[in-house]
Amino acid sequence: MNTRHSLLAAAALALLTPVPFAAMAQATKPAAVPAAAAAPAKAPIVAGAPAEWIQFDDLSVTPVIDDVSRHLAAARAALAKKDTAKAADAMHAAARALEAQGDRAAKLDRQRAAADLKSAKEVHGKMTALTKQLDATAAQIQAGKVSSTSALDKTFGRAQRADLERRWLVTDVTTWYPVAEEPQRHFGAAIEAYAKKDYKAAATEVRKAASYVRLEAARAAGDVKQGLDTANADLEKTAAALDKGAVRVQRDMEKTFAGANHALALAHRARAAESWARKSYDQVGYELKAAAHGLESGAGWVSNEAKAATSAATADARAIGDKLASGGVWAKEEIAKGFESLGSGLNKLGQSIGSRNKASPFDVGA
Predict the structure, then answer these.
(1) In this structure, are 119 and 240 located in the same domain?
(2) CA-wise closest residue to 221 among 360, 335, 79, 58
(3) Which among 91, 124, 286, 288 is least surrounded, fewest beta carbons within 10 Å?
(4) In terms of domains, do 196 and 314 share one?
(5) Domains identified in the chain, total number
(6) Is residue 17 classed as helix, strand or coil in its secondary structure?
């Protein structure tokens, strides 16, 4: 039999072969998927801890995780070695990196929520002022007027650092997601140090966790931001009490940690909803995965029963998040279910820890 006859025979056999009803139904049902769903799977963003921290004179800390913080850390390291030329160069580099982030804040996607756009305008103004201050500080370093990190901190105080953290509003997912699980890791380390009666070490770990809460607050608005600000204040109080050895009950620490995880999870879920409205599906995926981690971690500080009660919600959110982040196939019905389940789990956790903040309603759209 020649090749042409072979192909005809194969085609005829395929037409005569019965197709299972379930398979036929699935094949004819249109799938609700993103336009890019057929694209190759995207490489996952890997979690990782920062290799370095900046600690200021008032004991507050910030992780070194982007260009701005890396250059600031380099400037401080050079000052510590009395290398003013290198310190000045690093400070100028920090100014340029901040300037670039400020430009991104000024050009935010117009599909962003109104609160986002208003905040971005304010952030751009703050960044512009801070850029000038960094350049001015670099000139002072070069002139020998700032020769130590303590002197540097006097020119760059807590208020300016708070404004600097607002650059997180425009940070890329490849910067914030790798450290999304870091607060929980530091909470665990704080409990371990506390058990060893090393209260100073426990306080340091709490402050490190608080630094991430502040960064996330810079991306938030409304009730979500208020919840994060409250969580940060509670963590700062806990750290101060640990410094004095005044935290007598571990349970008090665990409740504070649960509240911070809850606030973080609510923030990530809110961000996921905003990203959904912009059709930034991979962003939705990573925000949902981060929210699931926050819910699971927060429930774990409450009780094993609470963690078990939220396990289905966290599993659903992670599964959907993985699909969206990797460019996989999904249906709107499962997206809506995932958001609803996650919101319900967060509201239950909130009730158990006495939080008034709740997950906002989610509309999957037409």
Answers:
(1) no
(2) 360
(3) 124
(4) yes
(5) 2
(6) coil
- Look up the domain containing 86 and give its range: 55-171
Q: What would the pLDDT profile of 235-254 be if each residue is shown by its tens digit?
A: 999 999 999 988 888 999 99
DSSP 8-state assignment for residue 66: S
Residue 48 in domain = no
Residues 190 and 243 in one domain: yes
**Mind listing the pLDDT tens digit for each residue in 128-167?**
999 999 999 999 999 999 999 999 999 988 889 998 998 9
Position 74 in a domain: yes
Q: What is the pLDDT of residues 39-63, one digit of tens each?
A: 567 889 999 999 999 999 889 999 9
Could you report how far apart the first and last alpha carbons of the chain are, in Å?
54
CA distance 145 to 151: 9
Q: Are residues 152 and 282 in the same domain?
A: no
Residues in Cβ contact with 217 at an 8 Å cutoff, skipping those fewer than 6 apart: 165, 225, 228, 229, 232, 267
Using CA atoms, how far apart are residues 94 and 71, in angstroms rounded to an integer? 5
Task: Tell me: do 133 and 210 sit in the same domain.
Answer: no
Locate 339 and state its tokens: 């958001």
Alpha-carbon distance of 272 to 359, in angstroms, equals: 12
Report d(CA 146, CA 292) in Å as an integer: 45
